[in-house]
Amino acid sequence: MITLGIGLFILFVLLFGPTPRFQNGRIGKLYRFLTSTFFIKLRNLLVRIFGSGMNSIFNMLGKVFHGERNPLVLIIYLWIIYYETTEWYQGAYKPFEELGVMTNSNLRTVSVMLIVLAVVIICGIFVSPGEITNSNIRHYLKLYPHDKIIYFEEDCPTCNLRKPARSKHCRMLNKCIPKYDHYCGWLMNTIGERNHRIFVLFLVSNLTICLYVCYTMYCIFKFKVDKSKMFKQVFRDSKGNILEVGFFFMISFLRKVVPRIFKQFFVLLFIVFLLLTFLFNNLFLICKNMTTNEATKFKQLKEYLLLQQKSQNTLSIVAHQPENTELTHINNGLNNGNNNNKQNETETDLENAKLNSKINPYAKHHDQISQLDPKNLKNTYNKGIFLNIKQFLFPPSIHPNREFQDI
Ligand SMILES: [Zn+2]
After folding, report:
1. 211, burial (CB in 10 Å: exposed 0-12, middle 13-18, buried 19+)
2. What is the β-pairing status of strands 168-170 and 161-162?
3. CA of 176 to the centre of ligand 1 (A)
4. Helices 196-228, 385-393: inter-axial angle, 10-degree rounding
5. Is residue 82 part of a domain?
6. Please, which pLDDT band fits residue 214 given cuts at 50, 70 and 90?
7. pLDDT band per the 50, 70, 90 thresholds, residue 37
8. Distance (Å) from CA 59 to ligand 1 centroid
9. If you average pLDDT over residues 89-110, what whole number do you get?
């Protein structure tokens, strides 16, 4: 049970660590440790022990796991599906079919759901996210003008094309993808304008099948509890005290009577929680006509602007401090501790601003964005919930509208 808990926690960290919600907190730190720091330290240690030959092995592994489109995550995902299905069939369906709790219709429903899921997975892998080409670029430039907030007029150095707003050069597919959302390892494909619908369908199909399997397990639990007639009996512990038959009593009873199904039920509940989080996050962004990539961009921009604002305030405080007169020395003497703290804070702010200026992608657009209010950044692509959902369901390059003609 502890191993399972640790496994699920690590899965949670790997999935949610890089998201804007967690990337700056402890989960983000742990994610960076697990995916980067740990391997750098391990590499240094192994190079010290076995020599520089280890470097090339690590470079190769780095390419496979991090830099290239590969089926590793997809294989893990398919294995999870296979494992969970056989576990359900052998552990839940088979033994309880004989007792009449499970029927043929349960098996049929799961089979149909699996077939639908397989079709969605195949579409998810093979349907293209779209591509910016010479023939469609003017349509995309017209459809998504540069907002001068998170998108500026730039060329893609790899494709040698002007980058329309909302697009991004995907290093996995080596193409500029319109309305780039993210790269999905589960489907081994990039999610963009043309296949975002399939990605949402993929989440929904997974969620439906998990919920249905949970429901069949709930039926088994109910059968076991009813059969035991536990609510009509009196239970005593080893000292003879009467035990209260409540929720926790029922949980420990089920854990003892049907351990295999009980364990699988909680694993599935955890997967349902992950899927629901992904799905709601996606739907929330779709309603705002914002991609996952853009949500990260807005966050980076806000961070940049807030730090710049803070450093400007700090600089103006420093500029307005009195000169080194005798009075200042006396004041410093009186408020020494206080001032030291303030000075440290000031230095940290300036250091943070400097650091942020170097690593934040918006630093190079400083002149164009410095007047923006970080608390009121406008998403200019938001056309209202109805049109946003329409654009998601009917991508303009597949269903051309007035703005996106002759494609
Ligand atoms: Zn490109």
Report:
1. middle
2. unpaired
3. 4
4. 100
5. no
6. very high
7. confident
8. 25
9. 93
Q: Determine the pLDDT at residue 332.
A: 46
Is residue 85 included in any domain, yes or no?
no
Per the structure, the count of domains in the chain is: 2
Helix, strand and coil in the chain, % to nearest 5: 65, 5, 30
Identify the domain boundary among 48, 68, 88: 68
Ligand 1 centre distance from Cα of residue 305 (Å):
28
Q: Buried (b) or exposed (e) across 265-280, using 16+ Cβ within 10 A? A: bbbbebbbebbeebbe
6 class by beta-carbon count within 10 Å (0-12 exposed, 13-18 middle, 19+ buried): exposed
CA 157 to ligand 1 center in whole angstroms: 7
Tens of pLDDT, residue by residue over 232-274, are 777 777 788 887 778 888 898 899 999 999 999 999 999 999 9
Q: Among 68, 96, 114, identify where a domain stops.
A: 68
Nearest to 148 by CA among 132, 165, 168, 163: 165
Q: Is residue 149 part of a domain?
A: no
Q: Which domain range does residue 350 map to?
A: 293-378
Report the alpha-carbon distance of residue 53 to residue 96 in Å, rounded: 56
pLDDT value at 348 more than 90: no
Q: What is the CA(381)–ligand 1 centre distance, in A?
A: 22
- As beta bridge partners, residue 243 has 235
CA–centroid distance, residue 182 to ligand 1 (Å):
15
CA of 173 to the centre of ligand 1 (A): 10
Query: Residue 338: inside a domain, yes or no?
Result: yes
Residue 167 CA to ligand 1 center (angstroms) comes to 9
